[in-house]
Amino acid sequence: MDAAQNMAHEIQHNLESDDDQFLTFILAGEEYGVDILRVQEIKGWDSVTPIPNTPEYIRGVINLRGTIVPIIDLRRRFQLEAMEYGPMTVVIVLRVDNPDGGKSRVMGLVVDAVSDVYNVPEGAIKAAPDFGSVVDVNFVKGLATLEDVMVIILDIDRLLNADELSAVESISQ
């Protein structure tokens, strides 16, 4: 089997498996994951248009092919030490569903760097204990050990509470 056939076989296997796939990224030395089906694209950091009177972690908005996309700095959102954006800094553009059943929206999350894509077998995600870290456990779907690395799986639909969603909603309009 040549390399192209191996890749096609692996893709087919991934599509047929019951495993969930997660895009992982680095934030302050920790590895986090989000459902890869929510990821629309990954962009290098670029300037944003700041919006006055928004929480400090909302960096501003970008125009992504006609869609106004709010950009959230996860370091600031999780109250981690601010870091100068560099060549590895990326924006992960995601579809986020409103937990109250409202319409979904597109948002960008600024992270330190993208790490990997992992297949996670059903049942491999363990419930998050109340570990008292800087990450509110309401945002955490669970923890998974992948290739000897502990990954914090985020629930992006709960990443923002109702008040913040309404602030983002007003920005998008």
Can you tag this structure with a few keywords?
173 residues; disordered N terminus; OB fold (Dihydrolipoamide Acetyltransferase, E2P); single chain; alpha+beta
Secondary-structure blueprint:
Elements: H1 3-16, E1 20-27, E2 30-35, E3 39-44, E4 58-64, E5 67-73, H2 74-77, E6 90-96, E7 105-111, E8 113-120, E9 140-146, E10 149-154, H3 162-172
Parallel strand pairs: 2-10, 5-7
Antiparallel strand pairs: 1-2, 1-8, 3-6, 4-5, 6-7, 9-10
Structure characterization notes:
It contains 3 helices and 10 strands, in the order αβββββαβββββα. The chain has 173 residues and is an alpha+beta fold. It has one domain: CheA-289, Domain 4 (OB fold (Dihydrolipoamide Acetyltransferase, E2P)). The N and C termini lie far apart (52 Å).
Q: Brief description of this entry?
A:
With 173 residues, the protein is of the alpha+beta class.
- What characterizes the major β-sheet? 5 strands, mixed
Helix/strand/pairing category: alpha+beta
Question: Separation of termini?
Answer: 52 Å
Strand ordering within the main sheet? 8-1-2-10-9
Low-confidence stretches: 2-12
SS element count, helices: 3
Bulk shape: globular
What is the average of the pLDDT values? 80
CATH class: Mainly Beta
CATH architecture: Beta Barrel
Write out the CATH superfamily name: CheA-289, Domain 4
